Amino acid sequence: MWNVLLSFSGPVALIQLLVLPFFPESPPYLLLQKEDKAGCLKAMKQLWGEGNYHTEFDDLMKEKAITKGTKIMNVLEVLRERSVYPQLCTMLLLLLSLQLCGLKIFRTANLQESIIPYVSLGVSISELISIIFCSSIIERLGRKVLLKGGYWIMSSLLAAITVTLSLQDWYFWMPYCSLALIILFTVVFAVGP
């Protein structure tokens, strides 16, 4: 029943994709990153209803004043910062261990048992590179764009994975298409959602 479990994320992603355009950007993002005070207040009213949000707005302004002197680090600077090594190691171990959960789908795709560990390692490395890439573009594009685009691409990839897994007995090269689509799905998930 793994295929039912795998397909369950499709309708959930579709629902999120349909309602996402109706939600505003987050108020801290609008104020701290975009420096849009009016947009921040409008987003607060849209998210929390009518009311007086001067306390929350003042808190965000204080946070903006505190972070004004601090430098926003890029990915390479974070990797060079020794104080974050424990957190980076924890995240890396989590990413690597998550890849072990996908071994069943590689077996279902009729891949040779001897290459499955290498495929799993390749997926892990692809996901890690994608996360690093995402952290460098999220400031420019915004979360909403990455989420919306990621969900559209992921839903298309899930449909294609379903087709390639259904046709794997007809063509000898179809398991490799399934594998490529699974890796691409992981990359898109890491960059978007």
Which helices and strands appear, and what pairs or packs with what?
Elements: H1 2-19, H2 27-33, H3 37-48, H4 54-68, H5 75-80, H6 85-99, H7 103-108, H8 116-141, H9 143-166, H10 174-191
Helix pairs in contact: 1-9, 2-3, 6-8, 8-10, 9-10
Could you walk me through the main structural features you see in this protein, from its secondary elements to its overall organization?
The chain has 193 residues and is mostly helical. The chain folds into 2 domains: 1-72, no CATH class; 76-191, no CATH class. It has 10 helices and no strands. It has helices spanning 2-19, 27-33, 37-48, 54-68, 75-80, 85-99, 103-108, 116-141, 143-166, 174-191. α6 (85-99) crosses α8 (116-141). It is flat. The relative contact order is 0.12.
Mean model confidence by pLDDT: 76
Class based on secondary structure composition and strand pairing: mainly alpha
Reading the helices and strands in chain order gives HHHHHHHHHH
**Strands, total number:** 0
| Secondary structure tally, helices | 10
Helix percent band: over 70%
Question: What is the count of distinct domains?
Answer: 2
Low-confidence blocks of residues = none
Strand fraction = under 5%
Radius of gyration: 21 Å
Cα-to-Cα separation, first versus last residue: 25 Å
Protein name: GTR9 protein
InterPro entries: GLUT, MFS_dom, MFS_sugar_transport-like, MFS_trans_sf
Membrane topology: Multi-pass membrane protein
GO molecular function: D-glucose transmembrane transporter activity
Summarize this, please?
This protein has helices at 2-19, 27-33, 37-48, 54-68, 75-80, 85-99, 103-108, 116-141, 143-166, 174-191. It has two domains: 1-72, no CATH class; 76-191, no CATH class. With 193 residues, the chain is mainly alpha-helical.
